[in-house]
Amino acid sequence: MTKPLNIGLIGYGFMGRTHSNAYRQAPQFFECDVKPVLKACCARNEESIKAFAENWGYESYETDWRKLIARDDIDAVDICTPNNLHKEIAIAAAEAGKMILCEKPLAMDVAEGEEMCAAVEKAGVPNTVWYNYRRVPAVTLAKKLIDEGRLGRVFHYRANFLQDWTISEDLPQGGAALWRLDAKAAGSGVTGDLLAHCIDTALWLNGGIADVNAMTETFIKERVHQETGEKQAVTIDDACTFMCHFSNGSLGQFESTRYARGHKALYTWEINGENASIRWDLHDLHRLEYFDHNDESQVRGWRSVHVTDGDQPYMDHWWVPGLQIGYEHTFIHQVADFLQSISDAKPCSPTFRDALETQKVCDAVLKSADEKVWIGI
Ligand SMILES: NC(=O)c1ccc[n+]([C@@H]2O[C@H](COP(=O)([O-])OP(=O)(O)OC[C@H]3O[C@@H](n4cnc5c(N)ncnc54)[C@H](O)[C@@H]3O)[C@@H](O)[C@H]2O)c1
Question: N or C: which terminus of the chain has fewer CB atoms within 10 Å of its end residue's CB?
Answer without folding.
Answer: N
